[in-house]
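Journal club side-thread
Mid-discussion, someone asked how the predicted structure for our own chain would compare to the paper's figures. Pasting it here so we can look after the session.
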Amino acid sequence: MPLKSAIPAVSVPSASARSLTTTAQLLPAQAVVEVVGVLVAVAASWREGTGDGLLACFARVPDPRDPRGRRHSLASILGLCTAAVLAGQVSLVEITAWVSAAPQDLLAAMGLRTNGLGYHVAPHPDTIERVFAALAAQDLADQVGAHLLARSGLTAPRHGDPAATGTPAEQGPVLLPAIAVDGKAIRGAIGPDGIIPYLLAAATHDRCTVIAERAIGPKSNEVPQFQPLLRGLDLAGWVITMDAGHTVRAHAEFVVAELKAHYVMTVKANTKRLYDRLDAIDWDAIPIGHTSIETGHGRWEKRTIQVVDAPEDVNFPHAGQVFLIERSTLRTVRKRAKNSKKYKKVQVRSSIAVLCITSLTAEQASPEHLATYVRSHWSIENKIHWVRDTTFREDASRVRTDSRPRIMTTLRNLVIGLIRQAGHTRIAATIRKIKHSPHLIYAFIGIPQPAKTPPDQALRLCA
């Protein structure tokens, strides 16, 4: 494995970056020193950006255990479990087994206690399971989300900033940071009422990081949890995208009036009056504002967007613009005729049109920006929910009761966020790299690299 690919793709100090260019030419021992220095620099840069590391984030989670008899801190337990997930362990049994066999330098970095012989003692698997069962999952999700949001470095122009209003002609509209709100069922789990738990999450469009998460109550849906999910987050100037289920007046008022943010909503038949009013617009008379064409994986796709200022009689809070997105797709598939063993390639055409409404005015968002917000909204499905199902096998999980399913989901979201914020887009490939180069865990979690590297691990790291 090339040395460059073994280092997380994050910004590091220039001196460390220069040292990387010559590491391949150094002797193995010198290469180890250079690699360790870069990892320490990465961890330090992350701590400077967030004010603390991941262990400090876990330390803010209330510990449900009785103070008497605690042998391991909650932060160290959660830190080791996060390291296990980073190393490719997907089930709770695999995580506890990996923690039990964790190396001494990692246990020391996590702050684990020592026994009479001076060895650091890992938490027992039963201890981890009891902590997961008793821990308040919402408290953990809140702290992890806040940590990832602080690390994201995303900021929006504040009120009065020219970029926020777009009033100067030379400034023009800018693409604002955005989050997508969507839900997912934890199909392997079961709630106290016998119903599959459902989680509503908010994830950034940029690098797809979950920054907030809440459980959907029994006999309910996503709508009542939308405002509690976002309330308390500093989202002034951000754009919030959502599917048609959240296109309600209360959400639009909440986003603009309370959060000081903007919304982009899809309009479908579940809001019949609004849908009929937008559908009645003479879209044929409105020019196409932006067109994009994409090809790949045997598919050709064309998207067009037509935008117009919101009509005065649209009767929707803070509506600035309405727009129509049309998508035409041409796919090449292999089909077999009836009673035939031969396959042939067939082209399949499909088209779809979607109506949307937004609080962004023409001075704040161009047609290209609106198209980007709508397209990026589905990254929460493709880059988070799908990854949890395929890479982490979430739907096949046998962790079913108590807080454990939610805690496992939070740890998966955390690992996906850490990897994506480090600049990597291929989650499974990065996890395999970490699995075979365990010292990369220190940089991803943001803890100091041990001064000495065991020879066998050092050679594997520099291979």
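Post-session note: Residues 270 and 315 are 16 Å apart (CA to CA).
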